[in-house]
Amino acid sequence: MKQGSENKHRTPAHIWLCWLLLAGGSLALWPIRRGIDRHAGGLGEHAETLYFSSGKTLRALSLGHAGLLADIYWTRAVQYFGRKRIARARRFDLLAPLLRITTELDPHLLIAYRFGAIFLAAKPPEGAGEPEQALQLVRRGIVANPGYWRFWQDLGFIYYWDLKNYKMAARAFETGSKQPGAMVWMKAMAATISAQGGEFRTSRLLWSEIYRQAETETVRRSALAHLAALKADQDIGELNALLTRFRKEQGSEPGSLENLVRAGYLKAIPLDPSGVPYVLGANGKVTVGAQSKVERHLLPESPPPPGADS
Amino acid sequence: MLAIETVDLTKDYRVGFWRKRPRRVLDRLSLEVEVGEVFGLLGPNGAGKTTTLKILLGLVFPTAGTARLLERDARDISAHRNVGYLPENPSFYDHLTAQEFMTYAASLFGLSDKARPRQVGRLLEQVGLAESKNLPLRKFSKGMIQRLGIAQALINDPAVIFLDEPMSGLDPVGRREIRNLILRLKENGKTIFFSTHILSDAETLCDRVAILDHGRLRGCGELREILEVGVFSTEIVLEKPSRDAVVALGPFTSSIVRTGDRVRLELRAESDLNNEVLAQVVRWNAKLISLNPVRMSLEDYFMERVGEDDTSLSRKSAKVRTESPKSE
Amino acid sequence: MIQRIRTIAFHTFKESVREKVLYNLIVFALLLIGSAVLFASISLGIGRLMLVNLGLSSIAIFGLLMAIFIGIGLVSKEIDRRTIHNILSKPVRRFEFIIGKYLGLMLTLLVNTSIMTGGFYMALYYVERRLGGEDLLPLEAIYFILLQFAIVVGLALLFSCISTPILSAFFTFCLYVIGNFLGDIRWLGQESGSRIFEKVTVLLYYVLPNFSDFQVISQSAHGISVPPFLLTSGTLYALLYVTILISAAILVFEKREF
Description:
The structure holds three protein chains of three kinds. Chain A is mainly alpha-helical. Chain A is about 60% helix and about 0% strand. A two-stranded antiparallel sheet of chain A has the order 1-2. Chain C has one domain (about 1-255).
């Protein structure tokens, strides 16, 4: 061992080694992790389990922090839903349990019930296609929050839109209109559904109201899409009626919508809500253009507009 | 008035979880300490010195017998207003500075807002810690902690002061300072109860000592008396004595030790030998350096008492309170 | 007497404050509350709710940790470091020591909670841009959180007089957890069918500290006020329980030898 003035600050070899390992190891972490994720990606999907399926148990275990847990589960539910939507999934198995746990943890988390009312009931790929689960969720919401009249609106909406049960829908709106603080249009809606269940006007009222009350971007976008689809549906119904009139009066096939314009039945080819012109389909019925952003699939089989043949 | 009194003080500790075999740490200890005395409690490690101290301070409760402090039962802490205590190997609060700690101690004694800073400053000065008063205690050396311990023991100007190994951790300068401090306190009429296993300290400072061993009192008495109990012998030191001188003195000596130019002769313990011996020294013209009686040291007394199984000694509650020395 | 208790309390406070761990905990808690602001902006319709839940839960959890970890050392640390000899050799009564220690730690928790509450309201203001009447409701939750601390510190102090820090932490934490489940335990006893078991669970229900009534975070977050009856009865219960704990601690401490 050398003593004296030289080599006073010679760092031992093992110190250099440690620094090297530290830096190198940290850098290597990133690509290795990505490699694992890429290959184990398939496994990740199968691990779609809920470790706790009972919200009540969780609530007891949370030692007073159930509210925070509910918020976390709500976030999980929305993320889960978003992921499934992006993947264009046809099954949303965990959505109902997640929303159930969320509302068991925090029965006053109104937004969770409202979200479920729309997206649990809607048919895939827009939603889980479980209207019965949606009804159950909203009913529990009513029990826990008796003063919140909008849940009756949600109940009515599910019956109307997804289950086509206009009698129950009208009844829900009727009951809801009697709750303190309910808005006037609830009663009007009850009457409209009773009289004209399935009408475009009724549906548009409902979806407009949903858009107005929306608290998340997801719901807002969904409402707009539905409104656009409804408008398109109405336009197409009117255009089909024009076609029928043309066939009757002219005795021939129009062939295209331009012919209708030339024949004076239309001023111009109308644009659908996404700004794309309607076209005449091969089956002789009007449909939206190829470039159209209107999501017609959102509409359940709409009943034929009055006056046109089925 | 008795500053401190114990009567048949006994302390047993339970040992063993299942079988309650008691271990007797103090066995019928009876002591009395007068006001104004410096009293030394001596004994080997584990003798029960600290236990005695703790009982007197109400930290430990006796199994039998009584302990009284300033005429009050030891469990009555009202006496503590006039008591100062320096524990063995003291430890204080790392996170406080010296001044903060002293202020804390002063508040606990109930010193007024005005008196507090004055007393604190004065005592820190006295023990030589005035410069370190804003240093956190975790940075204190052992010696500094010991000084601080002494300072906090005196902050309330107590009448009785308990010191458990006060010199531990001090360098020779420190030891001398503390010795002087104790003597000064004695001059001011304070009572000092001093526990140590370093006999030389006790020898210099105490009026009376008690010797404790395995919980029993082995001996107690005025230091003066103990040390004068017998003159063992005399020693003379000669410088460069002639051989004849040494030979002449031979019969009178029990041991001869040569160190360089000096010869130390320990004479046999018969007092009338002195004159004979001196005559011989003069006759042979030996240069006399010193002539000293060799007394029993405290250490001798101690070693004699400790380890003894003489129950008669311990039964005697040796309240030696004579005014005049026994020897002539 | 008051003077000595005060002295010991402030000393305990100062000691806690100088404990580095405390600063880390507070900084972490404040960071968490700050991050809640971030969550609020991406939080899918429950921004304010999330902030209040996260903020209050942080205050509760960190405060609980502090209460336990400082509480268990209140007495045992002084015994281990042998500073207790110093204190008790002065004219300090043993009960003054216990009460002073308790008050000192409560003072520490009060100050810390205030700091975290301040941070919380700053975050709330940042997100809401205004503070209305309903924003005072979390203060009710914080009051109940403080009541919980009062009981937990009492528990920790009692255990600190009896056993080692690790065991004290364990027992205190266990009692806190069990104290949240007392209703379920009693229900279990009723459902069990065994008379003895039922009696035992009823006894436990009344003897052990009941924390479940103090959990009002979710309520406050939703703007539901605590009924005044609960406020007063909760306070009385906490005061009573703390008195019991401190009395027990004093009794244990009086008998201890050092």
